[in-house]
TrEMBL record:
The gene is hisG(S). It comes from the Bacteria. This is ATP phosphoribosyltransferase. It catalyses: 1-(5-phospho-beta-D-ribosyl)-ATP + diphosphate = 5-phospho-alpha-D-ribose 1-diphosphate + ATP. It comes from Malaciobacter pacificus. Heteromultimer composed of HisG and HisZ subunits. Catalyzes the condensation of ATP and 5-phosphoribose 1-diphosphate to form N'-(5'-phosphoribosyl)-ATP (PR-ATP). Has a crucial role in the pathway because the rate of histidine biosynthesis seems to be controlled primarily by regulation of HisG enzymatic activity. The keyword Thylakoid does not apply. GO terms for molecular function: ATP binding; ATP phosphoribosyltransferase activity.
């Protein structure tokens, strides 16, 4: 049996589609159920940012999570495979017509991605104040909470609809299959077989 933590929403559905292609069986979470058990797999429906936690603690052998989430914290995990889904980037959002003013003595950035944003400014030896938010990041510059934001951009529509423009990209991201280290050694054959079958669907 393999336990696999999936991030609620579209990435979970797209991952389950890949499992269907790889193993010839349909996998669907029943309404509001958080566990789906079938044919030697136990899928867990968890919040995106919680996926590495389940895998780190060994509550799940495997997980599917965005590169941006892995980058935000340092996890001692095995990265098995880029699933090539949930493609997006972490980028700046600026008020329309504005540029990142690198001459400013200190830039204020609102973001969920504190570490990624901090690193960007550290590498440029610039002073930054990071304001941690948990959602609706696009609002911050509009009401003067910050000069700009660093957030996930997929189509750019959310920023556009909120009067922001997509600025410089910090990193590209997509969903990866990750493994708990102990699980990987204890269930190596099972996990490598799964990896190969999923890889063949990409
Ligand atoms: C992300 C991000 C934006 C949106 C960008 O949120 O925070 O709000 O997607 O997508 P777009 O460029 O296609 O408009 P997500 O859906 O990941 O939800 P979250 O805020 O709960 O993480």
């Amino acid at each position: 049996m393999l336990t696999i933590a999936l991030p609620k929403g579209r990435i979970a559905e797209e991952t389950l589609d890949k499992f269907e292609k790889a193993f010839g069986e349909k996998f669907v979470f029943e309404n509001r159920k958080l566990i789906l058990e079938k044919s030697g797999f136990r899928f867990l429906n968890v919040r995106n940012q919680d996926v590495p936690t389940y895998v780190m603690h060994g509550a799940a052998d495997l997980g599917v999570v965005g590169q941006d989430v892995l980058e935000e914290k340092e996890y001692d995990l095995i990265k098995l495979l880029n699933l090539q889904l949930g493609k997006c980037k972490v980028a700046f959002g600026l008020r329309k017509g504005e540029k990142l003013d690198m001459t400013k003595s200190k830039i204020t950035v609102a973001t969920k991605h504190e570490k990624i944003a901090k690193k960007y400014f550290e590498e440029k030896a610039m002073a930054v104040e990071i304001i941690k938010l948990y959602g609706s990041i696009e609002l911050a510059p509009l009401v003067g909470l910050s000069d700009c934001i660093v957030d996930i951009v997929e189509t750019g529509e959310t920023m556009k609809q909120n009067g922001l423009e997509v600025g410089p990209t910090i990193m590209e991201s997509s969903a990866h299959l990750i493994a708990n280290k102990n699980s990987f050694y204890a269930k190596k054959d099972l996990i490598l077989d799964l990896k190969e079958k999923i890889e063949a669907t990409l």
